[in-house]
Amino acid sequence: MSLLEVDDLSVTYRIAAGDVPAVRGVSLSLDAGEALGLAGESGSGKSSVAMALLRLLPRSARLDGRVLLDGEDVLAMKWGRLRAVRWSAASIVFQGAQHGLNPVQRIGDQIAEPLLVHRLASGAQASARVRELLEQVGLPTWRARSYPHELSGGQRQRVMIAMALACSPRLIIADEPTTALDLMVQAQVLTLIRRLIAEHDISLLMISHDLSVLADVCDRLAVMYAGRLVEAGPSSGEFRHPYSQALAAAFPTVGDPASRLAPRGLAGDPPDPQQLPGGCAFHPRCPVALESCSSTPVDLRPAGERRTAACVLVGEDRARGN
Ligand code: SF4
Ligand code: MG
After folding, report:
1. Buried b (16+ CB within 10 A) or exposed e, 229-267
2. Which Gene3D superfamilies match (predicted)?
3. What is the pLDDT of residues 234-261, one digit of tens each?
4. What are phi and psi of 6, to 5 degrees?
5. Nearest Cα residue to atom 8 of ligand 1
6. Distance 298 CA to ligand 1 centre (A)
């Protein structure tokens, strides 16, 4: 059985201007010890998926579908159970560490907090665990006495990772964990994440707009467009969906500054979620769209070994026996 099984998940924000469907029937699974990358432009719904998995969305969000964590539906959990599951079974590393840390609390106390809340350690035991966690993420133990403003962006992101590891969860969800960092620090944090998930046999769901960052860490990649999954497959293989290909071309290489300055192959803007184009939602931006693409919706279909993609051209290849 998968550690995480997301089944037909939808997220709809209810605002004054009406319902905004941010996630539309996403299904995915993650095995124990596996790393899955979820990619897409901003507004694709990827962060909403991440937050929905631990029900961290605002009250205006309606969640439908199922999120099975170790066989238990997170969306159906009572609050007490949900609190127990957060941090201890699954934890999350947020985008931009400055928002995830309390500016007036020492680093060590913040890392210890999940341990104390879940009664996994107290007193000297908790302090020892904090020192151990700081060492694991490559920070000197005296940093326990520092405040967040005394740390660099990269060091703060390491603190967030230490907090996520504190209760030894089986799953870590990381939402753009390196986006706010400069390229050299980004590479160091990615190396750290790779090492920790391997050493501790943790499953990882990592969210990013940058496919090259995800491919660097993850076994499998999934791509979202306009709230839907448009492709999923092993990170070693070639993308088949024109949107995934454009996204990959926009950020070709980890740590290559030129690739950041000149995103290629992705013209136009993502659609308004309240007024999605008919047929394939990508068709107004798709460089290889057929006439039928504006009227005929496309579901995910087999697109090679362990790969699915939602594009009519993939189906044509199949029909020709390629
Ligand atoms: Fe492009 Fe059509 Fe494929 Fe959509 S279904 S990605 S518009 S070719
Ligand atoms: Mg986001």
Report:
1. bbbbbebeeebbbbbbbbbbebbbebeeeebeeebeebe
2. P-loop containing nucleotide triphosphate hydrolases (3.40.50.300)
3. 999 999 999 999 998 887 666 555 544 4
4. -100, 125
5. 289
6. 8
Asked whether 26 lines ligand 1 (CB < 6 A), one says: no
pTM: 0.92
Does residue 223 have its Cβ closer than 6 Å to ligand 1?
A: no
Angle between helix axes 183-200 and 153-165 (nearest 10 degrees) is 10
Phi, psi of 220 (to 5 degrees): -130, 155
Query: Angle at Cα 192 formed by Cα 190 and Cα 198, nearest 5°?
Result: 105
- DSSP β-ladder status, 4-15 and 18-30: antiparallel
CA atoms of 75 and 82, how far apart (whole Å): 9
Task: Parse the chain into domains and list their residue ranges.
Answer: 100-168
Q: Say yes or no: CB of residue 290 within 6 Å of ligand 1.
A: yes
Write the burial class of residue 307 (CB in 10 Å: 0-12 exposed, 13-18 middle, 19+ buried).
buried
